């Protein structure tokens, strides 16, 4: 997902750089405004409807995989209760099995924290906020065994960067 | 107001009609000088933070987070002060507004800044400009409740100052146009007979006044409640409710600063291009959409709070998409059309203002992508987030304000506003700023968390390149600001 986000951004931004550069290069030659306005009007229509169609398609595809809804699905799950403290994580399970859904029930005992699950390559695979007074439920199925880490992803004070649980084991089924 | 008077106002080109009163002119100049100096200082703090993350500078974590706090607060502060100043300048060509309010705003701003700096560097407060409840009161022994109190009170004063300026502009709009809806062009949009067609600057000002006022009232509520919590710890808030209000305030105010400053683009680019950029129904509809959407999309900051209602999350994603339409389809495309094959006169003012259109439009892309919930699950609170907002602030808002600085101090006889250096300085600034934000985005794509004082060795390459680009951006900004300050005495003497 991160690669997709990066490459889409890269391509669109480069396209915009090309458009702006071209407009600047051609700006010194004066032309009547009328034809430019007509072209802009046509481009606006295409752009508008193109974005509408794109938005509907992307929203339709992406909203089907909402983590909020996954958390409410039934079925057998491995449960991990996690509480954030300044500045450590307290969890009742430190090992789960890959291929089976895990339900993280995450809260905080003091300030807001962010429960970020990082894979053995230090790539963020899922996250949920840890908020005092609320239990946020995150369901995730690990597809790869290994040692994962939990990094704090909400600024929580002077040792925010030290709030790391380094030993969360995902075992092979 | 009479139709005849309106007609005169509508047709009056900026610089030839009323314009700011003498006091307002001086206050705008003072504000922009302060904006320039504070901007440079905050950029310096940014360099220090990126160098520390890159392992090139030893900073204790408490000092890093103090710098982070001041950097965020200072940048939002100068964005608001700069945005209001730019907007006031152009709006006052159509409105009768009292420049004394800008003086009150500046006094409150400076008083607030003193409190914020003292609370942070003397009191040790490092709870970030977002003061996410209950962090100000629960520092783990790093700062006192007193330090947090003075920080929040300082922020409140800055906000009240900006609010007063917006209320005065709102008063002026109502006095001149008979209501905010009329100034937003809604009767014209809905086909009311003989409806007034407001100038673009007034539509943008009206929208900015509405959303800023609501944001600042929300901000004042949560700031006061947080202050009470600091004094009376038994008085507690619901953290989720508090977070909603904080992001309603924070998201709305920082976005509003761009809508304020874009008045410079609407006023100046057509003047330089020698083309008329008329208010159309599409334009009015776009700004109506922005007015509503900017106020309701803040839940996209809470996408990872699964306790939030699902409908609010879905709404946040969809409205984040639609909120990009006015920027891309109307203002951005409109600016391109105004410039395209126009024979425009390029100088610092026009160059920076056109760059700002690129920054605003392109900055929308990583923002919209991050507002997609499945992407947010693996991007939220990584460096992708500062990547997207630095994109449209550093390459959108800041060039708007810098461009206006040059425009306001240009040679009134028609001479260029820094034509000599525009050819290389503006592109160089664009390249340096683009490099800087790219390092944030790359860091985010590689899962580097945001707001971490200490980075792992494998993340440092992004930080080090970011520091190099940040130094280049800051040096160029230094030249921009120094040139403005050097031209200021002559400008002030000419307006006496």
Q: Can you walk me through this structure?
A:
The complex is a heterodimer of chains A (173) and B (496). By secondary structure, chain A is of the alpha+beta class. Chain A is elongated, with a radius of gyration of 23 Å. In chain A, the strands form two sheets. In chain A, strands 3-9-8-5-6 form a five-stranded mixed β-sheet, with no helix packed on it. In chain A, strands 2-1-4-7 form a four-stranded mixed β-sheet. Chain A folds into two domains: 2-67; 68-171, Immunoglobulin-like. Chain A has helices at 2-26, 33-62, 67-70, and strands at residues 78-85, 88-91, 95-97, 101-108, 113-118, 124-130, 136-141, 146-152, 164-171. Chain B has a single domain, classed as Cytochrome c oxidase-like, subunit I domain (Cytochrome C Oxidase, Chain A, Up-down Bundle), CATH 1.20.210. The model of chain B is unreliable at 1-17 (pLDDT under 50). Chain B starts with a helix and ends with a helix. Chain B contains 17 helices and no strands. Chain B has 496 residues and is mostly helical. Chain B has helices at 3-11, 22-53, 61-91, 100-122, 145-177, 180-183, 186-189, 200-231, 239-273, 281-296, 310-322, 324-339, 348-370, 373-379, 384-408, 419-445, 460-495. Helix content of chain B is 74%, strand content 0%. Chains A and B meet through α1, α2, α3, β5 and β6 of A and α3, α9, α11, α12 and α13 of B.
List the helices and strands and how they pair.
The complex is a heterodimer of chains A (173) and B (496).
Chain A: H1 2-26, H2 33-62, H3 67-70, E1 78-85, E2 88-91, E3 95-97, E4 101-108, E5 113-118, E6 124-130, E7 136-141, E8 146-152, E9 164-171
Parallel strand pairs in A: 1-4, 3-9
Antiparallel strand pairs in A: 1-2, 4-7, 5-6, 5-8, 8-9
Chain B: H1 3-11, H2 22-53, H3 61-91, H4 100-122, H5 145-177, H6 180-183, H7 186-189, H8 200-231, H9 239-273, H10 281-296, H11 310-322, H12 324-339, H13 348-370, H14 373-379, H15 384-408, H16 419-445, H17 460-495
């Amino acid at each position: 997902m991160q690669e997709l986000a990066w490459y889409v951004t890269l391509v669109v931004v480069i396209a915009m750089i090309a458009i702006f550069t071209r407009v600047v290069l051609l700006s010194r030659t004066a032309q009547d405004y009328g034809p430019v306005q007509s072209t802009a009007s046509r481009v606006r229509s295409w752009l508008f409807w193109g974005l509408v169609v794109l938005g509907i398609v992307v929203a339709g595809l992406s909203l089907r995989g909402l983590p909020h809804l996954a958390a409410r699905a039934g079925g057998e799950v491995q449960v991990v209760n996690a509480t954030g403290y300044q500045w450590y994580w307290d969890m009742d399970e430190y090992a789960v099995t890959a291929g089976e859904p895990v339900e993280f029930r995450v809260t905080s005992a003091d300030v807001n924290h962010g429960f970020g699950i990082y894979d053995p390559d230090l790539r963020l695979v899922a996250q949920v906020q840890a908020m005092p007074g609320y239990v946020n439920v995150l369901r995730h199925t690990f597809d790869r065994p290994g040692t994962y880490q939990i990094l704090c992803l909400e600024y929580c004070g002077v040792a925010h960067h030290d709030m790391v649980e380094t030993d969360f084991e995902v075992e092979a089924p | 107001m009479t139709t005849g008077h309106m007609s005169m106002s509508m047709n009056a080109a900026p610089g030839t009609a009323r314009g700011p009163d003498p006091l307002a002119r001086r206050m705008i100049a003072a504000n922009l000088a302060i904006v320039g100096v504070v901007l440079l200082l905050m950029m310096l703090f940014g360099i220090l933070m990126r160098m520390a993350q890159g392992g090139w500078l030893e900073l204790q974590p408490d000092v890093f987070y103090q710098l982070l706090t001041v950097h965020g607060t200072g940048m939002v502060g100068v964005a608001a002060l700069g945005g209001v100043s730019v907007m006031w300048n152009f709006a006052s060509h159509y409105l009768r507004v009292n420049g004394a309010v800008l003086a009150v705003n500046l006094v409150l701003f400076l008083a607030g800044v003193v409190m914020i700096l003292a609370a942070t560097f003397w009191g040790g407060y490092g709870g970030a400009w977002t003061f996410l409840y209950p962090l100000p009161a629960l520092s783990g022994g790093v700062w006192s409740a007193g330090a947090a109190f003075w920080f929040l009170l300082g922020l409140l004063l800055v906000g009240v100052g900006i609010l007063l300026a917006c209320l005065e502009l709102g008063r002026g709009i109502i006095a001149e146009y008979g209501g905010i809806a009329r100034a937003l062009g809604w009767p014209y949009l809905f086909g009311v007979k003989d409806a007034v067609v407001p100038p673009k600057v007034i539509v943008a000002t009206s929208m900015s006044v509405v959303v800023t006022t609501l944001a600042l009232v929300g901000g004042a509520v949560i700031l006061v409640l947080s202050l009470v919590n600091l004094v009376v710890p038994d008085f507690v808030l619901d953290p989720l409710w508090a977070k909603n209000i904080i992001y309603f305030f924070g998201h709305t105010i920082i976005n509003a600063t761009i809508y304020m400053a874009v008045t410079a683009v609407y006023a100046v680019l057509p003047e330089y291009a020698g083309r008329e950029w008329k208010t159309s129904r599409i334009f009015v509809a776009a700004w109506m959409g922005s007015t509503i959407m900017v106020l309701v999309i803040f839940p996209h900051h809470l996408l990872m709070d699964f306790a939030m209602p699902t409908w609010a999350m879905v709404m946040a994603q969809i409205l984040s998409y639609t909120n990009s339409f006015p920027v891309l389809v109307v203002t951005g495309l409109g600016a391109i059309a105004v410039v395209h094959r126009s024979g425009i006169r390029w100088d610092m003012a026009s160059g920076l203002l056109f760059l700002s259109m690129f920054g605003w439009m392109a900055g929308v892309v990583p923002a919209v992508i991050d507002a997609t919930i499945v992407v947010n699950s693996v991007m939220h609170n990584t460096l992708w987030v500062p990547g997207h907002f630095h994109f449209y602030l550093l390459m959108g808002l800041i060039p708007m304000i810098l461009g206006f600085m040059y425009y306001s101090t240009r040679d009134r006889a028609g001479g260029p506003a820094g034509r000599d250096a525009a050819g290389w300085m503006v592109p160089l600034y664009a390249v340096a700023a683009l490099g800087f934000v790219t390092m944030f985005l790359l860091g985010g794509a590689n899962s580097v968390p945001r707001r971490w004082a200490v980075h792992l060795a494998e993340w440092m390459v992004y930080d080090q390149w970011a520091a190099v680009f940040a130094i280049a951006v800051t040096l160029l900004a230094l030249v921009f600001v120094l040139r403005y300050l050097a031209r200021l005495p002559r400008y002030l003497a000419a307006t006496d």
